[in-house]
Design goal:
Length: 196
């Protein structure tokens, strides 16, 4: 609270007039981020596939802007934006015609994908800013040489750890990868559940 008061150029005790506890602050932060994850009113597609994709994109974008929120805001109490996000998600899966159990399962699959992708991107950003472990490079060379890592030649992995790691991280952090994974997930779910 002291740090927040300093950032806002306010007295710490003044904040307690508006926010009683750190938990209240976390709830407000979570709700603000979920507000960024909302598909704007009137723009949710009428097709289940497109609607879930739109929600996933908005959520992923919000989490990318606030990577600390993935773990820091766990357990926050839902606020108005969280409830609107839940309502949008429920409206999207209702378009499938699945029973309630199927809708919950499909929504959980999409949420797990988005959360997992956001976590992975946070990890990749951290790795890209640090020098890779030489043991990891030895392992990577062995994997490339055995053909496990497709599209690379062992010669691509130089003795310069930063130079060797950068192209791999760039491939993993490609924005297209989220879209390809999301399409594969939704197309696969459509096939499994027999959805149009």
């Amino acid at each position: 609270m002291r740090r927040l008061a300093h950032e806002l150029r306010s007295g710490t005790m003044s904040l307690y007039h508006y926010i009683r506890t750190k938990d209240d602050l976390v709830d407000l932060l979570d709700d603000a981020i979920l507000g960024e994850a909302l598909v704007p009113d009137g723009q949710l597609p009428a097709d289940w596939h497109a609607a879930l994709a739109a929600i996933a994109r908005h959520t992923c974008t919000a989490l990318a802007r606030h990577p600390w929120a993935i773990s820091a805001l766990q357990g926050a109490n839902p606020g108005p934006n969280a409830l609107r996000h839940i309502a949008q998600s429920n409206a999207a899966v209702a378009l499938t015609g699945l029973d309630q159990a199927g809708q919950v399962e499909l929504l959980a699959l999409v949420d797990d994908y988005v959360s997992g992708y956001a976590l992975r991107m946070r990890e990749l950003r951290a790795r890209m800013s640090a020098e890779p472990d030489p043991q990891l490079l030895d392992w990577l060379r062995a994997e490339v040489a055995s053909g496990v890592v497709a599209g690379m030649d062992a010669a691509d992995i130089s003795d310069d750890p930063v130079a060797a790691w950068a192209p791999i991280m760039a491939r993993l952090a490609s924005p297209d990868r989220f879209e390809r994974g999301l399409k594969a997930l939704l197309d696969g779910a459509g096939a499994v559940y027999g959805l149009p």
